[in-house]
Amino acid sequence: MNVTKPVGAAFEGIGASVRRKEDLRFLRGRGRYTDDLSRPEQLQAWILRSPHAHARILSIDTAAAAAMPGVQAVLTAKEAEADGLGGVPCGWQVTGKGGQVMAEPMHPVLASGKVRHVGDPVAMVVAETKAQARDAAEAILVEYAPLPALPDMAAALAPRAVALHDEAPGNLCFDWEIGDKAATDAAFAGAHKVVRFETTNNRLVPNAMEPRAALGEYDPNADEYTLTTTSQNPHVIRLLMGGFVLKVPEAKLRVVAPDVGGGFGSKIYHYAEEALVTWAARRVGRPVKWTCERSESFLSDAHGRDHVTRAELALDAEGRFLGLRVETLANMGAYLSTFAPAIPTYLSATLLAGCYTTPAIHGQVKAVFTSTVPVDAYRGAGRPETTYLLERLVDVAARETGIDRIEIRRRNFIHPDQFPYQTPVALQYDSGDYETTLRLALEAADHAGFEQRRAEAKARGKLRGIGISTYLEACGIAPSKLVGQLGARAGLYEVANIRVHPTGSISVFTGTHSHGQGHETTFAQLVAEQLGVPLGSVEIVHGDTGKIPFGMGTYGSRSLAVGGAAMVKAMDKIIAKGRRIAAHLLEASVEDIEFGVDEAGGRFRVAGTDRTKSLAEISMAAYVPHDYPIEELEPGLEETAFYDPKNFTYPGGCHVCEVEIDPETGETQVVNFTACDDVGRVINPMIVEGQIQGGLAQGIGQALLEGTVYDSEGQLLTASLNDYAMPRATQVPSFGVSTAVTLCTHNPLGVKGCGEVGAIGSPPAVINAVVDALRELGVTHVEMPATPLKIWSIIQGKGGALSAATA
Amino acid sequence: MPNVTLTVNGKTHAVEVEGRTLLVEVLREKLRLTGTHVGCDTSQCGACVVHIGGDSVKSCTILAVQADGAEVTTIEGLAAADGTLHPMQEAFREHHALQCGFCTPGMVMSAIDLVKKHPDGLSEQEIREGLEGNICRCTGYHNIVKAIAAAADVMQGRATEVARAAE
User: How far B140 CA sits from the closest chain A CA (Å)?
Assistant: First the structure.
């Protein structure tokens, strides 16, 4: 299908910044988030969680709690095991060196025998009110025998460290590698210079503003369950929970994800609480709702990042990259969350080429169990970690070789005429133009005028620095056959069902899920333009397994590239059927019928004539088939398409950050931030820019503010919004955001994805700017988050260890 | 259990509460006004902001009994009776100042109070400082700041309608 761009006064198609359809309900307070729902006879649940990082459970006495006012049930592992509940499954099996399959310990829905992190669920109380459930939970007596905590990977990998799981001796989940070790060793042997860099990619807590919630219902007459949950992918939850935990067939289980208040990855995974409320609803015979409190979400939502990495880059005398060696320790936390094993491997190490022509790369990843909250994807998921590593490493290499930071990037870029470009770490990039996004970003940031701004800042007593990152990422997840070979236990296609109703209005059922991305608007623009109907007559339906045939949900910037492509495919089928109906009505041959969109809308036309039928005329004929080719064509106008992508998509771009540091306080202010991103074709520029701005704020948060701290006993010290520094309005600047387009070559829309680029490209730009601001002090690196204390300590000369000299 | 009387969005309600019941719990659970959200438990996020007597208040940080007799306005009470949006609501829509929508009710309520307390207009820095008590994880604040500036122009008579955001 051709993507055309009709010109009109009220243009609402591809390329228009249409105001969002979903906003009116949110702005009036009429959104319907999971915790807003209330069912007749509904009960409330409270989860009792482990106060210990690692302990044996000696006994649980629930008698007093069960006798408290309003209590309807107190459930523990004993009841879960008696009812045959399975463990929370992992969706990806990584195979390591020598064919060694990852260790995959049981993840019970309620702790059985042991607790393995502070916050591990131990019991659930179901009562008439939340206050009653909470009061009763305090009356549960749990006797623990504490075991040594494993609060970080160093502790977990220490010789003779206690094993968190019997199934994972030495706390190792897997030891995996990618790339050609021999070729990489040879590249290093012939190198003019080798540059080394070590870093910890700081652990983050996603903190979507809506805390997780789940509402379970059971209808004994139909033997049917309904789970309403804060999920980015209701069909995936139905599959994982129904198939593995509750063992309920899909046909008896409906999962609804209504309005969801942000996800950023943290609401992809199947969580124990979803299964617990659904199970409890059947046991108690009444609806059961659980809503997480924020401090509880710090202890129970999957965290992100937490990689410790050592890298070496081999260069020739001209600063060309010859080889790259990377060793990473990746924290899995206490149990394997849904996608956890894929993050440091197939979503991270496969990006080690970045946008550079490094010919030989060898990456190794050891995944480690620790007594902490499980770690999984958070906005960018593996790609921010690799991007940060590469873009810091390139800056370190520039400094050590004396080559300008921008020039060394240019010398190593993959050029537009090199696509498709096969990297040495499995991926084949289809398109990109890194030189153009670099040039446009530098112009927009007035890079040329920076030294003057630095001098002005110095006169005001401020240390000003500038940093860039030129990044590439892989998203549009993902080709099913490929990910299956890599260990995914699901296909990653997407599904669209398009129903043209008799009078021509259209319902689009998509397997993706919108939790802030504006799908109800963007997808409607896509369908309205391509079928030539008004925007207002297209309704996007998502988030309900009872309505939508199937779907894999929203993450990995996949919704438009995969979900939108499925819509195009379904529309192609609608048009193909429409042509046959039109041929009958217009008494022409099917080959002579063309579909096109003009000022009057979508029309089927006998080629070269003015004889036409509108889409509405065709749909009416399809549902009222009095004059219809009934012998050869079924009535109705509704089509379903599954679209499986041929490759990942590869957005890229350049981020330029300018900071000012107050040497008196160590505080860093981002004073300018300019991004030029290539996200492929843009449907709604307003929404795309909003996605990028939000991602940039999260990246600045990672670089300057957000750090997750466990103490030596495995207690989470940053366990509330008082203690964990979320970016506030004063801590981020107004952003200069623009896009430059190279089209994706393998999906029908040419789109790449925009959800994660902001969070992927920005952290190294910020730290490169911080290091640049401190260059006169001899500082070569500052670890994230670059807090005022850290920088003040460096400035005071008290922070030698923190400055982590690299060579 | 104590009884409290609240006038919410112009309607008077008498409700029975526990001593520990928060105002936000009465709004959400007893009055079913679920537009006011709870995003944290430490008075940090501002998703629960409502107006009491015209001033913005975090409704998770006040007991229902403390609000006895109060005039409360929630996000549901902002638009005119004919459905016309408040200029702040209109500006948030026009400037794409919301994504997931969860922080939005509190953000809008805080922003209206912020504008009222700066009758001569606000600088970008004043807007950003005024949002100290409201966290948004989606937008990066860029468009929220633009929306508040545009709404202030309308609320304070410098413009007759919310300026259309630059394309």
Answer: 4
Residues A222 and A219: their CA atoms lie apart, in Å, by: 6
Q: B 46-105 residues with CB below 8 A of A?
A: 47, 74-76, 78-79, 85, 89, 92-94, 96, 98-105
Find out whether A385 and A194 touch, Cβ atoms under 8 Å: no
Taking chain A (807 residues) in runs of 10, the rounded mean pLDDT of each run is: 46 93 97 98 98 98 98 98 98 97 98 98 98 97 98 96 97 98 98 98 98 98 98 98 97 98 98 98 98 98 98 98 98 98 98 98 98 98 98 98 98 98 97 98 98 98 98 96 94 97 97 97 97 96 98 96 98 98 98 95 97 97 97 97 98 98 97 98 98 98 98 98 98 97 97 98 98 95 97 80 39
B101 and B136 belong to one structural domain:
yes
Query: Is the Cβ pair A38, B32 closer than 8 Å?
Result: yes
Distance from CA of A124 to the nearest CA of B (A): 20
Asked if B138 has any chain A CB less than 8 Å from its own CB, the reply is yes
Report the SS3 class of residue A198: strand
Q: Any CB–CB contact under 8 A between A261 and chain B?
A: yes
**Could you give the C-alpha distances from A730 to A209, A293, A502, B121, B133, in angstroms and in order?**
18, 26, 52, 18, 11
d(CA A291, CA A536): 35
Among A209, A295, A690, whose Cβ lies nearest the Cβ of B47?
A: A209
> Of all helices (H) and strands (E), which one includes residue A618?
helix A615-623
Nearest-neighbour CA in chain B from A514: distance (Å) = 8
Q: In chain B, how many domains are there?
A: 2
Hey, what domains does chain A have and what are their CATH numbers?
9-31+493-643 (3.30.365.10), 207-234+241-300 (3.30.365.10), 428-475+648-807 (3.30.365.10)
- Touching check for A17 and chain B: CB below 8 Å? yes
How high is the ipTM of this complex?
0.98
